[in-house]
Amino acid sequence: MSQYIFIGMVIIGVITLVISFCTHKMEVFLSYILRVAFAVASIYVVNMVIGMLGYHLVVGLNGGNVLTVTVLGTPGLVALYLLVAYFRYI
């Protein structure tokens, strides 16, 4: 089941890239790439900072989490960590 979800996310990403190339709007493509890079960097940095503070809350660096932060931005990042904290300390 998780393979189908991953394949679906890859297909959505490829469709987004094709659309951005077909419309000749490089700013859309660059914006998408920058959002993905920011998502990966922010998850990595927040994981490091929380680890240095002594807490064991780690959000995985996977496609679903990167897609969440890419689409939702900072609120998505906060939501991921709140969900991890909620399910860890139930």
Can you characterise this structure?
- The protein is mainly alpha-helical and 90 residues long.
- It is 81% helix and 0% strand.
- It has helices at 2-22, 26-52, 63-72, 74-88.
- It is elongated, with a radius of gyration of 15 Å.
Helices and strands, with pairings:
Elements lengths: L1 H21 L3 H27 L10 H10 L1 H15 L2
Helix pairs in contact: 2-3, 3-4
Short overview:
The protein has 4 helices and no strands. It is mainly α and 90 residues long.
Q: Which sequence of SSEs, written as H and E, runs from N to C?
A: HHHH
Low-confidence stretches: none
Q: Average pLDDT across residues?
A: 86
Structural class: mainly alpha
Describe this protein with a few key phrases.
single chain
